[in-house]
Amino acid sequence: MRRRTVLFVLLAALFASVLPLSAQSSSGTILSVMETTKLLPDAVFFAGQSASTQLRNSGGVHYADNLYTLVTLVDNSGYSSGVKEKYQAYFITEAPLSIGGHPLPAGIYGVGFLTGNRFNVMDVGAHDLLTTPSTHDDQMKRPRPLLILPTAAPGTYRLCSGRDCVEFKRAK
User: Where in the sequence is the signal peptide annotated (predicted)?
Assistant: First the structure.
């Protein structure tokens, strides 16, 4: 009788420890600025130049399988006005994503919010890869220069710059 009780308790504990891992596999944890500053560089290469990052304005998601999506605002003052208007942040993803319903493979990108509620993604050579609609959230209580927020849908996040936001999630 005692062996059965011990065996039952051990199996219940094993099952309880495995259950949270399977629940996390499709989603991730939003990282704090302190966590992203340990992962992101002080300067990045984009469009033939090096730009300083604004690590105080960074965010990220750490997925259950130990992959990351990281983003930080950059000092784009040395770029032409055409690049500067579209390149506001450096975006790194180790996992394929869906941004506004568009597929985005793992990689390093320059991103930015454009006038007219649009979000743009460029490769490191400043070539446009995709543009998708963004939203303007007038109800946001404390807008910040860059912020990643959860949504009601598990595993889906909002990348926001001020009140302008775009949704992203891991691609299937």
Answer: 1-23
